[in-house]
Amino acid sequence: MLICSTSRGVSSCFVGMLVLVASCLSHAGVVTYRLEVDNTWSTTTHPGLFPDAAHFSWLGGGTHNAQVNFWSEGQLASPGIVEMAESGRVDLLENEVDAAIVSGTAWSSPAWRWWFCPGETSNGSCGVTTVEFDMDSRFPLITLATMLGPSPDWFVGVDGLSLRTNGQWLSSLIVDLFPYDGGTRSANSWNLGGPLNNPPEPISLITQETGQLVGPASLGTMTFTLLTVPSGVGSEPDRLDASIGLHQNWPNPVRGGTNIVFRLPRDSAVELSIYNVQGRQVAQLFEGLRSAGANQLWWDGRNAAGDRLAEGIYFYRLQANGQAETKKLLLLR
C-alpha cells in the first residue's frame, strides 16, 4: 500500500444495429478502480471551525494524460474549477473534461452528484462514499475536486494523480485531503459568496499562516483500490470482487458507434439502456439473460425508433443482480 499527501502536489511522490461480440475484453489496457471518499471533517479535527451541514459537494473531474491540466496550486482557476469551488456544481468542469476528450488528452469525466458527508452531519443530499470508475493505460492520471460546503471558494481534491507507475497499476493508494483556496472570493466565513477578488488570485494551499477559517488540517482521505488486474493483451481481467462492472465505452466521443463492455459475476438477467440528460430513456440496448464474465455490445448512436440521436451527452445504465451502474458518453455526428 502506498500512502501519499496532496499537501504540496501529490502527483509528484436502443433499437438500431446491435452486434453481440464474444465475451472477451479486447481493450486490455482498461482497469476498474474503487474510490472511497472518507470525510473526517469534525469538531475534533477542526475545533470551533466546523459549520452546520458541513460536507464535500459534488465530486467532478476526469481521467487524462500529462498533456492536459485541470487545476493546480499556483495557477488561476478555470471556469469549471471556479463554479465547483464557489457553488459545488461540476457542470462546467465536466464540459472542460469533455473538451479534452475531444482533443484526445482525456478519456472520461466521472462525476458523482451527491454530497460526501462526515459522520457528524445528517442531510438528505448525502450519498454513498464508495464509487467506481475505469482507467485506461493511455490516460493514467486522475483529477478530482469537490467544494467544502458551505464556503466561499474552498475545496479539496487531487491534481493529476497517477495511478500507474513503471508500467504497472497501483494496487492501492491513500491520499490525504488538505484544503485549497480557489482564489476568487475573499470572504472568511461559512457562507457561499462574498466579495470577489479582482483580479482573481492563484489557487493556494490553506496553511496556518493564511488564516482561513477552515484551518490547514486534513479533512479526510481518498482511497483508490484496484479492482481488476489485466492478465495479458486481449485477455479478460480478473475481477477482485463479486460486483457487476460497467466499463467506460470506447471510442468516446462516439462518432459512428461505440463498444460498451460490462462484467457479470454470474449468469444474470440484464438491462442496458441509454438515457438523455433529462433522464429519459432513449434506447434499450439489451434486456435478457447474459453469461458471467465480460460482455460486449455495440451501439450505433440511434434511438428506439432507429433515428440518429442529436449530438450531446448521454448516459448508459446497466442493471443486474439488484445493482446498477451508470456512465457518461459524448455523442458527435
Walk me through this protein's architecture.
The chain is mainly beta and 333 residues long. The chain folds into 2 domains: 2-13 and 30-226, Sandwich (Immunoglobulin-like), CATH 2.60.40; 242-331, Immunoglobulin-like (Sandwich). It has helices spanning 79-87, 91-103; strands at residues 2-5, 30-39, 55-56, 60-64, 106-108, 130-136, 141-149, 154-162, 164-165, 168-169, 172-176, 180-181, 204-205, 220-226, 228-229, 238-239, 245-246, 258-264, 268-275, 281-290, 293-299, 312-320, 323-331. Strands 3, 4, 5, 7, 8, 12 and 13 form a 7-stranded antiparallel beta sheet that branches. It has a 5-stranded mixed beta sheet with strand order 1-11-14-2-6, with no helix packed on it. Strands 20-19-22-23 form a 4-stranded antiparallel beta sheet, with no helix packed on it. The longest helix has 13 residues, at 91-103. The radius of gyration is 20 Å and the shape is globular. The chain starts with a strand and ends with a strand.
The CATH topology label of the largest domain is Immunoglobulin-like
Strand coverage percent: 35-45%
Task: Supply Rg.
Answer: 20 Å
Percent of residues in helices comes to: under 10%
Low-confidence stretches: 1-28, 231-240
Q: What composes the largest sheet? A: 7 strands, antiparallel
